[in-house]
TrEMBL record:
Keyword Transmembrane attributed: yes
This protein's name: Polysaccharide deacetylase
Natural source organism: Clostridium aciditolerans
SUPFAM superfamilies: Glycoside hydrolase/deacetylase
GO molecular function, one term: hydrolase activity, acting on carbon-nitrogen (but not peptide) bonds
Keyword Manganese: no
Skewed-composition ranges (Low complexity): 75-90
All copies of domain NodB homology, residue ranges: 102-290
Gene3D superfamilies per the UniProt record, alphabetical: Glycoside hydrolase/deacetylase (3.20.20.370)
Domain of life: Bacteria
Length: 293
């Protein structure tokens, strides 16, 4: 009888122990499932919030400043070694041709923007300096009055492609020319049908053997492109201090004819801040100012 009762007690203890272990295992499993589910839900919510904030990429939308900065920073870092290569296919006009003068061509890419372009135009007017604006077609459509103002104040407007989507435009030379054509058509619709300059600048520059087919295709389509041999480095990152922009300018202003790369995209506020000092520095070195054509 005692053996039987002891066996019953042992069984009860074993069942109780097994029940505790089972409950503990279930608790661990439930906790893990809750944690994973929470993580997935968090990611899902982030996607929804990102879409609500307009951070999703869509075709035919203006590329974000961050995307352009990443690409142009990488390209321009590589191209610092090529700054004196003077890539252009400018037909009879050669901005680098020696003529005994010191000439600076101020160029602004990636605009127009409502916050920076008007300020740049005001500064240029104050110093009586003319510049060349390589505009993105999508931005020109959104800010057509600024394009008209650039022309009205004696500046030159060039084609910086319609989309500035580098993954797209550099996928094939025909795609690139098609995007240039769309940009050209956009400029004609704003400036007038007599706009036939065919002046272009490759996003990121036309440097390097990989873009040789694209350069050839652009020339065959009647475009002439001009890169740069001087820069302020405002594409190096999102917000370069004025002192850094001036240091880069002084570092690369070594030739009599300089085509200077700057940007008037929305994020380039320090480019506006530095522009008076850029102009004054070049004037102090004996440069006059002209536009590309």
């Amino acid at each position: 009888m005692e053996k039987y009762e002891e066996r019953i007690k042992r069984n009860r203890r074993r069942k109780k122990r097994n029940a505790i272990l089972t409950a503990f295992s279930l608790l661990l499993l439930f906790s893990f499932g809750f944690f994973v589910g929470g993580k997935m839900s968090h990611k899902k919510n982030n996607v929804v919030v990102s879409a609500a904030n307009g951070n999703t990429k869509e075709p035919e939308k203006k590329p974000s400043d961050e995307a352009m900065n990443k690409r142009e920073s990488a390209v321009n870092s590589d191209n610092k070694n090529n700054v004196n290569n003077k890539n252009s296919s400018s037909g009879e006009f050669d901005p680098y041709k020696p003529d005994g003068k010191k000439v600076a061509y101020l160029t602004f890419d990636d605009g127009p923007s409502t916050n920076n372009t008007p300020k740049i135009l005001d500064i240029l007017k104050r110093y009586n300096v003319k510049a060349t604006f390589f505009v993105i077609g999508q931005c020109a459509e959104q800010n057509s009055e600024l394009v008209k103002k650039e022309v009205a104040e004696g500046h030159v407007v060039g084609n910086h492609t319609y989309s500035h989507n580098m993954k797209h435009i550099y996928s094939d030379p025909n795609v690139f020319v098609s995007d240039l054509d769309k940009g050209d058509k956009t400029l004609k619709s704003i400036i007038g049908n007599d706009y036939n300059l065919k002046l272009a600048r490759f996003p990121g520059g036309s440097f390097g053997p990989k873009l040789a087919p694209f350069r050839e295709a652009a020339k065959k389509a009647g475009y002439h492109y001009i890169d740069w041999n001087d820069l302020t480095g405002d594409a190096e990152r999102s917000l370069v201090p004025v002192s850094g922009l001036l240091d880069e300018l002084k570092r690369y202003t070594t030739q009599d004819h300089v085509v200077i790369l700057m940007h008037d995209a929305p994020a380039k506020t320090t480019t506006v801040d530095a522009l008076p000092q850029v102009i004054e520095y070049l004037q102090s070195k004996g440069y006059s100012f002209e536009t590309l054509k």
